[in-house]
Amino acid sequence: MNILKSVAIAAVASLAMTGAAVAQQAFTIQVDGSSTVFPISEAVAEAFQQQTQGRVRVAVGESGSSAGLRKFCRGEIHIADASRPIRGSEMATCRAAGIGFVEIPVAFDGLSVVVHPSNPMNSITVAQLRQIWSQGSGVNNFRAVGGPDLQMQLFGPGSASGTFEYFTEAVNGTARSSRTDYTPSEDDNVLVQGVASNPGGMGYFGLAYYEENRSRLKALAIDGGNGPVHPSRETVENGTYQPLSRPIFIYVNAAALRRPQVQQFVQFYINNAARYSAQVGYIPLPTAAYQTYLQRAQRRQQGTAFGGRALIGASISEVLARPLVLEEVQR
Amino acid sequence: VERDFTKQKVRWGERIMEGLLFAAAAVAVAIVLGIVYVVVSESTKFFAQVSVIEFLTSTTWTPLFDNPQYGIAPLLTGTFMSTLVALAVAVPLGLLVAIYLSEFASARTRETIKPTLELLAAVPTVVYGYFALLFVTPLLQRALAPMGIELPSFNLLSAGMVMGLMIIPYIASLSEDAMRAVPRSMRDGSYAMGATRLETAFRVVVPAAVSGVLGAVILGMSRAIGETMIVVVAGGQQPQMVTAPTQQGATVTAFMAQVALGDLPFGTLEYNSIFAAGLALLVLTLAFNFVAFWLQRRFREAY
Q1: Do B238 and A198 touch (CB under 8 A)?
Q2: What percent of chain B is predicted at pLDDT more than 70?
Q3: A70/B258 touch (CB, cutoff 8 Å), yes or no
Q4: CA-to-CA distance for A62 and A247, rounded, in angstroms?
Q5: Strand pairing partners for A202?
Q6: Which residue of A has its CA nearest to B67?
Q7: Closest CB to A186 among B66, B133, B258
Q8: What is the predicted ipTM?
């Protein structure tokens, strides 16, 4: 009888222990959002799970900046990945749902404007880019922008992508305002192929894809008014490659930052962002910036430095100097 | 002993099995109805903001741009053109393969060729897409250059041709089944009249199997209309009124994939445009299936 009893106790105890272990393992940090930020978040999450030996799980999705922030403001996820600052309308939704956010820029994303290597052009001004890409533009020859007498063939990201939105706002002044008669693709490899196989090809996409295909493409230096600047890690970091470089973000639920697992993960993210962003083809922020954001996460300072709008052509030191706000700043 | 045969014992086991089988069949119907419901209800939101007349008559499709236009016509021309090219490749080739397999090949050859052919349908379509873009297009560019035709690196010709390759197995396999179902006696009758094997194949077997062949072609066509990745990768994705296969163009499915892969907020007009495009596609395929059903009945030969 005694033996039976102790066996039963042992069984119950072990059941309870497994239960506790399951409960401990069950906590999963939910991350979702921009597919641009996804590669960094994924790499960081993997390293973090390895380091914590699986005690904390991190699930990373890539449903897009807007979808990610929508889930974030419904409280469905702890962290939203975004390739643009949070919008005024999203801040309002979050506020209405009682969800506070901590904004943490994690790296820079640069866009490159590329042409076929045989094209003699080396640089282009933003005004010329606008001439080519603006809505209703009929420019079909490089002659019109001071280049050779060469028929143009234009390639660009699909109109549903964040890159399209960013480029059109930076170059044409209005997001989504663009000529429509170019070859779009959501697949950057298809765009690389298009420009590389057409002597008159011209296109734009993420800097990382240019760097991977340097031998087949030529990136144009961009003249934003202060002389042409070639896209590179240095020029993006020091803010001279303008207006085609942008910071990318994670937004962390302020209440979730009180949980030790989330706090630990976000600190790990900031401490390793430089390493992993470089690994996946983005440009790290200056070290001082990461220091500031680490403090911001520890103190759970809420708000955005961008006033609820996209910010074109800001250097990171400018952004750091801005006050954090919780409502859209009127222009 | 008198037995009342009108009152049979209820066999519950059988009843339950019958119910389960019915449920399995009903799932298919329920899923179709569910899809129709979602597509129609989501497109209602779209058509609340965009007039049906603009949708059907405008020749510009730029729903995601700053100054949006919602004319489905460019996408439909893209779909028609790529499907036409695919059928031009797949119907003759598929039928020839079917005739060979059914009438001329030995049993052993057939057992080797048929599964191999069916492997064509098992290749992931994104692989076909890059095959079209990186292999077929350069080949076509070189072949067409002497004729003075300058083929752009994205075009519906190459995408459509590779799509044709993909649907050959559908057409060949189903047509062959239809031809093999033609009774032996008809072939014997034909031989008795002094016809050769070739004459028998083309003048007796093919006409007798025409209803099944039509079914095969329609299935291949539906597959081509719905095909997405090949045109997304190799077709160009620029929505324009397509008049020649050498042009680039976007199909209905290519547009839907572009939006679904993109970064658009759910529930916006832009996002709902994919449901309107989907509805157009659904109506189109439904119409084709009705025509096919009618044709099959019209040409059915029963033995």
Answers
A1: no
A2: 95
A3: no
A4: 18
A5: A115, A154
A6: A177
A7: B258
A8: 0.70
Residue B4's pLDDT is 67
Asked if B232 reaches chain A (Cβ–Cβ under 8 Å), the answer is yes
Q: Taking Cα atoms as reference points, which of B121, B230, B109, B251 lies closest to residue B174?
A: B121
**Minimal CA–CA distance to A236: which of A207, A258, A259, A211?**
A207
pLDDT band at residue B7, thresholds of 50, 70 and 90?
low
Closest in B67, B154, B232 to A135, CB measured:
B67
Sort out which chain A residues have CB atoms less than 8 A from B134's CB and list them.
193
Which residue's structure tokens are 């309002």? A92
Residue A17 pLDDT exceeds 50: no
CB pair distance less than 8 Å for A135 and B261: no
The tokens for A98 are: 């009682």
pLDDT in tens, A178-230: 998 898 887 788 889 899 999 999 999 888 778 888 999 999 999 988 899 99
CA dist B209 and B177 (Å) reads 9
- Give the CA-trace dihedral at A274, A278, A282, A287, to 10 degrees: 30
A189 to chain B: nearest residue by CA?
A: B233
Mean of pLDDT values over A99-111: 92
Picking from B79, B82, B83, B87, the residue whose alpha carbon sits closest to that of residue B252 is B79
* Interatomic CA distance for residues A197 and A304, integer angstroms: 43
Ranges A257-266, A308-317, B148-157, B195-204: which has the least confidence: A308-317
Query: How far does the CA of residue A61 sit from the closest CA of chain B (Å)?
Result: 13
All residues of chain A having their beta carbon less than 8 Å from the beta carbon of residue B62 are 159, 180
3-state helix, strand, coil in chain B (%, to 5): 75, 0, 25
How long, in residues, is chain A? 331
In the structure encoding, which two tokens stand for residue A225, read together? 């008014």
pLDDT at residue A15 tops 60: no
Q: Which residue type occupies B71?
A: G
Q: Identify from A183, A192, A246 which residue to disrupt to test chain B contact, counting B C-beta atoms within 10 A and taking the largest count.
A: A183
- A106-116: per-residue pLDDT in tens? 998 889 999 99
Q: What is the pLDDT of residue A316?
A: 67
Of B67, B238, B259, the CB nearest to A160: B259
- With a pLDDT cut of 90, the percent of chain B lying above it is 68
Which residue has 């700053």 as its token pair? B66
Contact residues on chain A for B158, CB-CB shorter than 8 A: none
Partner residues linked to A141 by β-bridges: A151
- Mind telling me how many Å the CA of B258 is from chain A's nearest CA? 6
Asked if A158 has any chain B CB less than 8 Å from its own CB, the reply is: yes
> CA of B40 to nearest chain A CA: how many angstroms apart?
22
Residue B29 has pLDDT above 80, yes or no: yes
- pLDDT, average across residues A291-295: 92
